[in-house]
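Issue 218. Parser rejects a valid record. Input:
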Amino acid sequence: MKVTTKKFQAYTWMWDTLLHKNYSYIGQNPNLTFEQKQEMKLGFYAKYLNHVKNNTEEDAIILMPPDSTLSSTEPQLNLKYLKDRRRTTYFLYPRKPVYRKSYQYDKNLLAQLTHVAIVDYQGYQELDYKLRDKHRFTVLPITNK
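Output the parser choked on:
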């Protein structure tokens, strides 16, 4: 009987919270773009990845920041999701994010890197060129061609 109760509670949560509230919100805001809806739901994480998507080619191979950088940013920026390789890969598809901790798996991609994701001013050291103006969050090509 406990299993049935737990299942029922899960279904109630899914219907009342996940489906019903999201569906109501979409109905109240029909003119929002998909990107705007993502940003409202996921905050700065979605805003930053949308910036990365909009400023890179579809075949881009992007060096992502190390976990230590992501852990040191303010919690309200919600960048902890950048540590989630699967979620970020899904979000950026068809672009390929490459993580420092997975170099052993992505060695063939390291030579093909096209961009660096700059987070909290970290990543500029990976560029083949110097910049006068630096932004806290951006994405830049590895080489200045």
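Fixed in the parser; the record now loads. Helices lie at 2-28, 34-42, 44-54, 67-72, 85-92, 107-110.
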